[in-house]
Amino acid sequence: MPDETVRCIHIGLLCVQDSPNERPLVSSIMSFLENGDISLPPPKESVYFA
Q: Which top-rank group of organisms is this from (predicted)?
């Protein structure tokens, strides 16, 4: 999978964190997308299981 695809999935996981306080701001998301050098925080594991 290309790095850009993995990065977009990672950002998507950050956006659906259980707690709104753990989700990035829109301005941060834009920075993540525009600058591939910015290191992304790890998403926390969900409390829900499928």
A: Eukaryota
Q: Examine residue 44 and state whether it is found in any structural domain, yes or no.
A: no
Total of domains in the chain: 1
Using an 8 Å Cβ cutoff, are 34 and 8 in contact? no
Q: Which domain holds residue 23?
A: 3-34
Say what the pTM is.
0.82
Whole-number Å distance between alpha carbons of 16 and 38 = 20
The answer to whether position 22 is within a domain reads yes
Q: What is the mean pLDDT of residues 14-33?
A: 95
